[in-house]
Amino acid sequence: MLNLNRKLEKLQNEGSYIKVGLVGAGQMGRGMISQIESMKGMRVVITSDLVVENVTNAYKHAGIEASNIEETADKEAASRAVNAEKVVATQNIKLVTSLPEVDVVVDATGIPNVGAEIAWDSILNNKHIIMLNAEADVTVGPLLKKLAASSGVVYTGSAGDEPGAIMELYDFADAMGFEIVALGKGKNNPLNVEANPHTAEAEAKEKGSSPKMLASFQDGTKTMVEMNAVANATGFLPDKPGMHGFKASVEELPEIFLEKSNGGKVNGKRIVEFINGIAPGVFAIISSDKEEVNAEMKYLKMGNGPNYVLFRPYHLTSLETPLSIAKAYLDHEATIAPYCGLKAETVTVAKKDLQKGEHLDYIGGFTVYGHILKAEEAKEQNALPLGLVDKNVVLQKDVKKGEIITYDAVEQTEESTIWKLRSMQDREF
């Protein structure tokens, strides 16, 4: 991200700016719009949401006058508004992904199937796509990345999301030639696989967040998905199904990630993991076999080795997304993408006893949660990827609480875009 600020300033001084299209004016989208309004060389020129009022309110809170906000679903009217330096509010997602004036599209919906549709349409319209939707990425990201490359555009996850923040630590350490032992993140709350929107409702109200979203954090699904994204980007794998979930301080991390034969708690190296006690930070455990490097690390108060921890104590979620937008547009580079293909899989597990004929619901809902496996383990078990779960998926047999739901246990009442893309991906790779 070196010199992005200067590149954006140069762009603005030349009388130009990156024109961003956004889908989703929830908490993440609102923050991103306001942040970008404070930046040079960039603007969110069109935003789509099911509730158009969410969009207009987001623009107004960002300091944009109501007279400069155009509500329309018409492409020609939207183009005229953008060319007149206005911004557009719409319910029409495809208007965002197809509008000629848009350079980069951001998906901030968090809904896997919708995210897959947005990414697919954006790439077909030759637009860079930034995914604030790790659930879609871990399900069909390898295919979307390949399609984007063949179309000459960038497919990327977002800076500020934990996977993007971890990837920055990885790239830093890898460029310097360190051995990278483990990559991980802190978890904000104790793991409770039974969490659902009802159990999370009071805390969600207190925090001003969605009960469904909070439940997806509490039941571990978001953590599994985020580390799945890191696995597909780096080739690192969970040390055991579902990861360990150690409780530790930052200072304790180097010893934890020694192998068991050396007094540590893990079975190998190049692993992804989550830690209770260090949220909202992310980390990389690094090592070196060079005597002089270890002496220098000790002098720099990085510890006694052989493992050292690189720790970033914050991630600014969608407020950092503009950096990925700029990197894609100006440098034609991704912040994080599934460079290694499908290395891990977040599979679907029954949150309670489920009956034949029952519809599955959604991530953070009442019926299922996510559990990370190595991709080969998931394939051997015929496990259903969590990103394929939605209201159109119906059980064809009973499934007990805690059991992995398999492909042959479900049927779709209506085939979704993400199922079609996943079928294409499975054939392609």
Structural notes for this entry:
This is NAD(P)-binding domain-containing protein. Helix 7 links the parallel strand 6 (128-131) and strand 7 (155-157). The protein folds into 3 domains: 4-160 and 318-331, 3-Layer(aba) Sandwich (Rossmann fold); 162-317, no CATH class; 344-428, Antifreeze-like/N-acetylneuraminic acid synthase C-terminal domain (Type Iii Antifreeze Protein Isoform Hplc 12, Alpha-Beta Complex). Helix 2 (27-37) packs parallel to helix 3. It has helices at 4-13, 27-37, 52-61, 75-83, 93-98, 112-124, 134-151, 162-175, 201-207, 211-218, 221-234, 253-256, 291-299, 321-331, 375-380, 417-428; strands at residues 18-23, 42-48, 69-71, 87-90, 104-107, 128-131, 155-157, 179-187, 237-238, 246-247, 271-276, 282-287, 307-312, 344-350, 368-374, 393-395, 410-412. The model has no long low-confidence stretch (mean pLDDT 97). Helix content is 38%, strand content 19%. The chain has 16 helices and 17 strands. The strands form 4 sheets. Strands 3-4-2-1-5-6-7 form a 7-stranded parallel beta sheet, with helices on both faces. Strands 8, 9, 10, 11, 12 and 13 form a 6-stranded mixed beta sheet that branches. A two-stranded antiparallel ribbon has the order 14-15. The protein is an alpha/beta fold.
